[in-house]
Specification:
Number of helices: 9
Structural class: alpha/beta
Strand order of the largest sheet: 3-2-1-4-5-6-9
Oligomer: single chain
Helix content: 40-55%
Shape: globular
Radius of gyration: 18 Å
CATH architecture: 3-Layer(aba) Sandwich
Bound molecules: 2-hydroxyethylsulfonic acid
Strand content: 15-25%
CATH class: Alpha Beta
Number of domains: 1
CATH superfamily: NAD(P)-binding Rossmann-like Domain
Largest sheet: 7 strands, parallel
Number of strands: 9
Distance between the termini: 42 Å
Order of helices and strands: EHEHEHHEHEHEEHHEHE
């Protein structure tokens, strides 16, 4: 296992859920963190908690990944202490709505496409050139089982995760000779605020998704990402698909009555 001690790890979408859990998991291993989100107060608060708990350095940044200018500025202004990013956890993403395509809201499509595809690309464009120059780095994208099997009423979300899967695979080939690793972790059901956001704040609808199921929790994903990030130098985990024990795919899930 490679050590994460004193590595610089950049986590997008770190204000909650999997991003927040990754911040804890990587800090526990001794990594220094750049944590970003649109909601600066949230990442600032998390930064304070993490500094106190793990005695690592943490830089909190306000970044909306859908704004390339903001992403580029934030990364290019990093000081010497922070500019060598060892690991990028490209986590910012969302699902919005669960509707038949012909009845769905194009505004939610724009938001998902802007965040899940363009946002991930913008962060890659800002961070990977430094990794290439230093001939060292690891990009870990947050995919989904939705990137493997499209399901009804989730067409655009599934399309964004298929796109991210293509981006992961292409990027891996682009940096194959630069000592930069590219991985994706593709979860099924994880109980975070993802569901609440998907259902526009409807807590009951969100809770129903996990009815009778013990879903994964954000810490399960964070722990697996730490595993991906700590393989020996000659090993790359290209892809991990991870689901609750009782979920086989987007369609088959055993629920206890
Ligand atoms: C989230 C998992 O199954 O809701 O990416 O698409 S799923």
């Amino acid at each position: 296992m490679e050590s994460l001690m004193n590595k610089n790890v950049f986590i997008t979408g770190a204000s909650s859920g999997i991003g927040e859990a990754c911040a804890h998991a990587f800090a526990y291993e001794g990594a220094n963190l750049i944590i970003s989100a649109r909601r600066f107060e949230k990442v600032e608060e998390l930064a304070n908690v993490i500094r106190e708990k793990y005695d690592v350095k943490v830089l909190a940044l306000k970044i909306d990944v859908t704004d390339y200018g903001m992403v580029e500025k934030a990364v290019s202004e990093l000081t010497d202490e922070w500019k060598n990013i060892d690991i990028l956890i490209n986590n910012a993403g969302k699902g919005l709505g669960l509707e038949k395509m012909y009845e769905d809201d194009p505004n939610s499509w724009d938001e998902m496409i802007d965040t899940n595809i363009k946002g991930a690309l913008y962060v890659i464009k800002a961070v990977v050139p430094g990794m290439v120059e230093r001939k060292s780095g690891h990009v870990i994208n947050l995919g989904s089982i939705a990137g493997h099997e499209p399901y009804p009423k989730g067409g655009v979300y599934c399309a964004t995760k298929h796109a991210l899967d293509a981006i992961t695979k292409s990027l891996r080939m682009d940096v194959i000779d630069k000592n930069v690793k590219v991985s994706t972790i593709d979860p099924g059901m994880v109980e975070t605020n993802f569901g609440e956001i998907r259902f526009y704040g409807d807590k009951e609808k969100a809770a129903n998704v996990y009815k009778g199921v013990k879903p994964l929790v954000a810490e399960d994903i964070a722990e697996t990402i730490v595993f991906i990030a700590t393989r020996p130098a000659h090993v790359n985990i290209n892809e991990i698909i991870i689901m609750p024990h009782v979920q086989a795919n987007p369609f088959v899930c055993h629920r206890e009555e």
